[in-house]
Each structure stands twice: as C-alpha cells, then as structure tokens.
Amino acid sequence: MVTVLTKEMMDHFKDRTEKHIELVKKWYGRLIREYYSIPLIEIHAHDASKFTAPEYIPYISLTWNYYCKDHQIRFDISDELQESMNEATLHHIRNNPHHPEFWDDNFDYSMFNSKDRDEVGKSMVNATSMPLSFILEMLADWFAMSEEKGTDPMDWAEKNVNVRWRFTPEQINLIESGIVFYGEQKE
C-alpha cells in the first residue's frame, strides 16, 4: 500500500510544524529569561530538518497520523510507510541536539520503539552529557507540545525521565523546576 500525500496533508504538516516552532521559540524565550545564567543557544533552526530530506516526506505522513489519531480518523499505515517514518524519526533525533538521543554515542535502532515512537524503547538512552542549554530547548519543545495538545509536561517527564532517558541530578533539577515554571506561566 502506497500512501498518497494530499495537499491537505502537506498543508497540515506545514501549518502545524510552523506553529510548533513558534511555540518552542515562545517557551524558550520565557525559559531563558528565567534561567539567564544558562548559556543562550540559537534555536531559530528548531525542527528545520523536518522540511528537508530524508525527513520531509515521512514527516508529512507522521504528522497526519497524529492528526488522525487526535480526531478519530482512520489512517492506514503500511509497513513500508512505518519504516520510512521510523527512519525519518531516527534521523531527526540523531541530528537535533534538543533530543536526548543526540547525546548518546551508543544510541542505535534497538533502543528506539519502532512500533510507537512515543513509548520507551528496549533500553535507556544516556543523556547525561546533554548541556543545560539544550535541556532548556527540550523543555521548550515539551511545553509547546503540551500547549498544543492540552497536556501536562509533568506527565511526559514522569513517563520518560530516568525511564526512557537517563539524566543527571542537575539535569533533573532543571527539568523539574522548568515544569513548575511552565505551570506558573501558562495560567
């Protein structure tokens, strides 16, 4: 089965991804003002790789898949398309430093949950070398997703911190205080 990309799917991907990037910038700006002692990084390129090969085409389908799940719409994914989306996801997380997997030199496909990319893989990713500045961008990413989906980033943290990704006590401190900050800011 070949999935045909429609204009609606492509437009949704573009609009949703651009909105997400703007929300990440908003939350990063707020975080960096709160945690001014952490070195500033340039995040203008956040998720830009999704608009280029080898991520672009698979991420259109991946984004559409989430849209369909959120709206209870059936969207059939062939094994070939699933593999393509997994490869794009792996490329993305290995090439964008706001993902903990970027920082684990031993990260490989076996550590990735190929059936559900949002679930824990077979072994924990070592993110202990992830600089605090990229922890802030990761948090901004989580906060943007929480704002988009109406979820609580603490739920995501509890499901993943030192379960999916291993962090140091200092990193965990920043994650936890950042989530408290998010709760204060979103109201």
Strand order of the largest sheet: 1-2
Roughly what is the average pLDDT, rounded to an integer?
92
Into which percent range does the helicity of residues fall?
A: 55-70%
In total, how many domains does the architecture comprise? 1
Order of helices and strands: HHHEHHEH
Low-pLDDT sequence parts: none
Count the DSSP helices.
Answer: 6
What is the CA-atom radius of gyration, in angstroms? 16 Å
- The count of β-strands is 2
Beta-strand content bin: under 5%
Shape, per Cα inertia axes: globular
Structure description:
This protein has 187 residues and is mostly helical. The chain has a two-stranded parallel ribbon. The longest helix is centred in the first third of the chain and has 28 residues.
Short recap of the structure:
This protein has helices at residues 7-34, 56-70, 79-95, 132-149, 153-160, 169-185; strands at residues 125-126, 165-166. The protein is mainly alpha-helical. α1 crosses α2 (56-70).
Q: Top keywords for this entry?
A:
187 residues; mainly alpha; two-stranded parallel sheet; 6 helices; 2 strands; globular
Task: Walk me through the topology.
Blueprint: H1 7-34, H2 56-70, H3 79-95, E1 125-126, H4 132-149, H5 153-160, E2 165-166, H6 169-185
Parallel strand pairs: 1-2
Helix pairs in contact: 1-2, 1-4, 2-3, 4-6
